[in-house]
Amino acid sequence: MPPRGASSATARRASGSRRQAPTRPPRWPPAGNSGTGWRAIAPALGAELAAGSSPRQTCAIILWIAHHEAGLTVRGIGFDARLIGALGIGRYISGLLPELARLLGRSLTVLASRPDAAIVRALIGGEPELLTVNARPYRLAEQSLLPLSLLRADLDLIHFPHYNLPLVKPGHFVVTVHDLFPFQFPEIHSGPLPRAVNQMLMRNAVRRAERIITPSAATALAVKQNFPASADRVLSIPEAADDRFQAARNPEGEAAWQVRLGIRPPYVFYLGQWKAYKNLPMLLDAFKMLRRTHPNAQLVIAGDDPRHPEVRQAAAVLPEGSVVLPGRLPESAVPDLYRGAAVVVLPSKAEGFGLPVIEAMACGVPVICSDLPVLHELADGVATFCDPNDPDAFARAIAQTLDAPSTARARQLGIERAKSFTWERSARQTVEAYESALGVRLISPALEEYPGAREEKDLQVER
To answer: 223-234: per-residue pLDDT in tens?
Structure first.
């Protein structure tokens, strides 16, 4: 009996990636082979064996062919990119989606809102299908029109990168749960009704998902503890910094943005949302203490949220020009502002992952962050950790960093740590979650081994 989610003969090929392996073209089946039978593929399989495929890879190729012989292929995998413009989740989508497109090729269908269609197409390239939908997130159309669009798309599986998915959804899905803040910090919602709706949506997503992806082991543990019935479906797949954070410094670009935004070195940089759990009033208290010994220091708090006027109110009592609130930054400005900072801070009371920590380390910038298990996963031995309820501790740590700038070795340590998190690896692990949910292979076996995979396995054995 075919595994749940498998379909009969398919019009799509499960392989579509054009990524090159280190030694030979990794595409399987070979280009030009339209058939999936043994007779059509046998010559190419012989060439693979002659080229020195490992026994493990040869077995994987045979298994892949057997899946096609049995009709255990998929019509397509969907990915919901409607939140591409959102803070936080938008960074997750824009980092993961290009790598998924390279791996899945024509097997991937991406859902996007019409205004974002051009942005999404630029991310995914020409092979995946782009389906524009008129169903804005958290609107009634999400519950009425979106299910109809998904039904017409005839997908075997869809990945929702957030819990705001239709209550009535045909077929199977995977969901990414970034955190449990609707339950841990219910005050982040504007009233009882939004609070209840968000909690209901999260319960629904976790209860029905084939697989639940979380960005950290700490978040995975929280999901398992709060939703015990989901424990065997939860897995942790870390996020990563985009390649643009790993480029060389651009002093001219850094200076240009600083002049444009009224920023002067040395500055302390925060990038993120202004919600209560981000703990920005505490950061401003710490900065007020810091100015007693470092009056020339400046604090830059990027982002904005009119629902949290307390941030601007706390900043207003500090000397003019000492705190810069540039609003939401253009994406092109973010790497330069990271690199120009004396230190990056993340004072949150809780985090699902903590992407700014990875991005700052990738830029070679010192990090001071809250003493949370999830942040230790990312930066243990690299960042300085402080009690999020102790502004004096943050002030002392920032002062020490300003007085004794990090050495080249310390910066390189952060850069190397950030390199251990890649979107390519995240995408491969995400595809493995799809395969586990459907019980079929989605990418060609020759793509199974990727640069660093063998070393990664060796490290796991050593642990």
So the answer is: 999 999 999 999
Integer Cα distance of 401 and 294 in angstroms: 11
Looking up tokens 């010559």 gives 43
Q: Which two tokens stand for residue 28?
A: 């399987």
CB 165 within 8 A of CB 175: yes
**Domain 244-419 in CATH 3.90.420.10:** no
DSSP 213-229: EESSHHHHHHHHHH-GG
Which tokens belong to 434?
């799809």
Percent of the chain with pLDDT strictly greater than 70 = 79
- The tens digit of pLDDT for each residue in 32-56 reads 443 444 455 556 556 655 566 566 5
pLDDT tier, 141 (very low <50, low <70, confident <90, very high otherwise): confident
Cα→Cα distances 326→209, 249, 298, Å: 39, 22, 13
Element (H, E) at 78: strand 77-80
The whole-angstrom separation of Cα 237 and Cα 217 is 8
- The answer, yes or no, to whether residue 427 has pLDDT greater than 90, is yes
In DSSP terms, 78 is beta-bridged to 109, 158
* Confidence (pTM): 0.79
Q: Does domain 77-240+422-439 have CATH number 3.40.50.2000?
A: yes
Dihedral (CA of 114, 119, 122, 127) sign: negative
Q: Which residue has the tokens 């586990």?
A: 436
Q: Residue 69 pLDDT more than 70? A: no
The C-alpha atoms of residue 172 and residue 170 are separated, in whole angstroms, by 7
Tokens at 201, concatenated? 């949506």
Contact by Cβ (8 Å): 241, 421? yes
Output the six-digit token pair for 367.
């990090």
Residue with tokens 């001219």: 252
| Residue 15, pLDDT above cutoff 90 | no
User: Where are the CATH 3.40.50.2000 domain residues in the chain?
Assistant: 77-240+422-439, 244-419
